[in-house]
Amino acid sequence: MSDTGTARLVLPGDLLGTAEEFVPGWGTYEDHGKIYAALMGHTNVSPNDHAIRVDAVNAIPRIAEKDLVYARVDEVKSAMAVCTVMASFDSRRVVPGAPEGTVHISKAKDGYTDSLGDEFAPGDILLAQVLQSHPTIKLTTQSQDLGVVSARCQVCHGLLASGPKELVCPRCGNRERRKTAHGYGVLKGVRGGADGPGAH
Questions:
Q1: pLDDT tens digits, one per residue of 139-153
Q2: Do 43 and 71 meet the contact criterion of CB atoms below 8 Å apart?
Q3: Could you give all domains of the chain from N- to C-terminal order, each with its CATH number?
Q4: What pLDDT, in 10s, does the model give residues 52-98?
Q5: Which of 35, 104, 148, 200 is 20 to 30 Å from 183 at the Cα level?
Q6: How far is residue 190's CA from residue 198's CA, in Å, rounded to a whole number?
Q7: Which residues of 129-168 are buried (b: 16+ CB within 10 A; e: fewer)?
């Protein structure tokens, strides 16, 4: 039997082991007591339950709890901000299907929030953490490192620059408040729409 103690690159149909040795996991299938790779990727064996899985090469990003993601604010309501989850922070890869996520007013920042309109605005790009991935995606920006990383002026739509206490529009001078991330203005390698991160 091939060595599965260390990760190895496998192709669809490659024999990984038997059902007596392993529990078939993600990216595998069982046929007549033998476990095969269902896709191209690297093997991974869990030491706890002896489950074997295949982590796909260039896998489509999957949203999981505690993941960091980029999200675009689409609508700000009284109790929550409705967002489109755009990309994974780690891989910068676009999340397929543009799933919807929400930030509840209690999860916007550490401390009391009187109005979400003082924290976010439609079109803002957030760096957020996933609190819940199923059945709906719930996000938080409470940490100092999380929050708005790119914002446009609500008057002239120019990109807002970071100021001492507020964000300032270099184009028209308008000043706006946001719950900004520690690294506001640093947004690289993420593809978005015409007004998305890729345009910044």
A1: 999 999 999 999 999
A2: no
A3: 9-56 (2.40.50.100), 68-199 (2.40.50.140)
A4: 998 877 666 678 899 999 999 999 999 999 999 998 888 777 777 88
A5: 104
A6: 6
A7: bbbebeeebbbbbbeeebbbbbbbbeeeeeebeeeeeebb
3 state SS for the chain: CCCCCCCCEECCCCEEEECCCCEECCCEEEECCEEEECCCEEEEECCCCCEEEEEECCCCCCCCCCCEEEEEEEEECCCEEEEEEEEECCCCCECCCCCEEEEEHHHCCCCCCCCHHHCCCCCCEEEEEEEECCCCEEEECCCCCCEEEECECCCCCCECEECCCCEECCCCCCEECCCECCCCCCCCCCCCCCCCHHHC
In this structure, the chain runs to a length of 200
Tell me how far apart the alpha carbons of residues 165 and 176 are, in angstroms, rounded to a whole number: 9
> Does 135 sit behind a cis peptide bond, omega within 30 degrees of 0 on the bond before it?
yes
Kindly report the backbone phi and psi dihedral angles of residue 116, in degrees, each rounded to the nearest multiple of 5, phi listed first: -65, -20
pTM value > 0.70:
no
